[in-house]
Each structure stands twice: as structure tokens, then as C-alpha cells.
Amino acid sequence: MYYCPKCDRSISKERLVEIDAELRERFGRSCLPSLRCPVCETEFIDLEKVESGGEKLVGEVRRK
Ligand SMILES: [Zn+2]
């Protein structure tokens, strides 16, 4: 799972691959190598690499 702190949105890797394919088809650019949010271009946080509590962080932000 990836998380964009600016959009406050988490996205699964599978979904990101789909979005990336669409981006490449439509705009000829790719968001996968840099792992940046296709919407705001903020770098994603890889929730699998974040220390335990990464998922919780998403919840915290969402509750506000
Ligand atoms: Zn974003």
C-alpha cells in the first residue's frame, strides 16, 4: 500500500499499476519509477516500509 499525505489517500500497488498504465497511454508519462502521486506529484509513503503503525497514521489523518 502506498499513501499520499497530501491527498490523504492510500492506494494499493495493483491500483497504482493500473493508473500508471493509463497515464502512459494518455499522457506518455509514468508515475511508477518515482512513486509519486499521479494527482499532486507528492512522493508516496510506502506503508509496507513504514515502521509498524503506518496504517494507523492513515487512520489518524482521516479522522481529522
Ligand atoms: Zn496526492
Describe this structure in words.
With 64 residues, the protein is α+β, with helices and mostly antiparallel strands. It has one domain. The chain contains 2 helices and 3 strands; from the N terminus they run ββαβα. A 3-stranded antiparallel β-sheet has the order 2-1-3. Zinc ion is lined by residues 4, 6-7, 37, 39-40, 42.
Task: Summarize the helices and strands and which ones pair or pack.
Blueprint: E1 2-4, E2 9-11, H1 13-27, E3 45-46, H2 54-63
Antiparallel strand pairs: 1-2, 1-3
List keywords for this structure.
alpha+beta; 12% strand; 64 residues; binds zinc ion; 3-stranded antiparallel beta sheet; elongated
What is the compact description of this entry?
With 64 residues, the chain is α+β, with helices and mostly antiparallel strands.
Overall strand count: 3
| SSE-based structural type | alpha+beta
Tell me which ligands are bound: zinc ion
Mean pLDDT: 84
* Low-pLDDT segments: none
Number of domains: 1
Shape: elongated
| Fraction of helical residues | 25-40%
Tell me what portion of residues adopts beta-strand conformation.
5-15%
- Radius of gyration, rounded? 12 Å
Query: Could you spell the SSE succession in H and E letters?
Result: EEHEH
Distance from first to last alpha carbon:
21 Å
Question: Within the largest sheet, what's the order of strands?
Answer: 2-1-3
